[in-house]
Amino acid sequence: MSLAQAFAKGNGRRAKWQGSTINSLIRLDVSTGDRIAVTRVRSSRLRAQALKVGVDRGDLRANGVAVPVVSIWSHTAPERVELEVVGRRAKSIEVWNAWSFEGVDSAWIGNAGMITEQEGAARILRCSDGLGEPTFDDLVVRLEVLRGD
């Protein structure tokens, strides 16, 4: 069974595949004033990869700009990015991987997914883009929620 078939058979957010739990996205609790630290460990040289971060009922601020969804692209973003959660009603973020192929940005199709590993207070996200066989090294990032005071 392919990873795409495993997701189709399950709930679309999480699938069991070859003994591992694969996520199409993860959701983390946040509050206004929290910061999301994203550090790129490695990324594919074959095509641009992105980590997408969206917040419910609020915005994420980076470089003085506040938007509800941020795309952190491997070919344009610095190795480490911090996003600030703004909006008193913000309760959670959703995080997923995306990629660009021949000028088209894609997510959640084919063999896309993430293996997550806990590393202290941080999570390591090992992402497979949707093209070809899953490898889970197309994009590897360290993500941590830094609680505001």
What does this structure look like?
This protein has one domain (3-146): Jelly Rolls. Helices cover 5% and strands 55% of the residues. The model has no long low-confidence stretch (mean pLDDT 94). β10 (92-101) and β11 (104-106) form a beta hairpin. It is mainly beta. A seven-stranded antiparallel sheet has the order 7-6-9-4-14-13-12, with no helix packed on it. Strands 3, 5, 8, 10 and 11 form a five-stranded antiparallel sheet that branches. It starts with a helix and ends with a strand. It has one helix and 14 strands; from the N terminus they run αββββββββββββββ. The longest helix has 7 residues, at 3-9.
For the largest beta-sheet, the strand count, sense and barrel status come to: 7 strands, antiparallel
- Structurally, how many domains make up the residues? 1
Overall body shape: globular
What order do the helices and strands follow? Answer: HEEEEEEEEEEEEEE
Please report the number of helical segments.
1
Strand content: over 45%
Rg, Å, rounded:
15 Å
Query: What is the total tally of β strands?
Result: 14
Task: Kindly state the percentage of residues in helix.
Answer: under 10%
How would you write the strand order of the largest sheet? 7-6-9-4-14-13-12
Distance between the termini: 47 Å
Low-confidence stretches: none
- Class in CATH? Mainly Beta
Class computed from helices, strands and strand pairing: mainly beta
CATH architecture: Sandwich
Say what the CATH topology is. Answer: Jelly Rolls
How much is the average pLDDT?
94
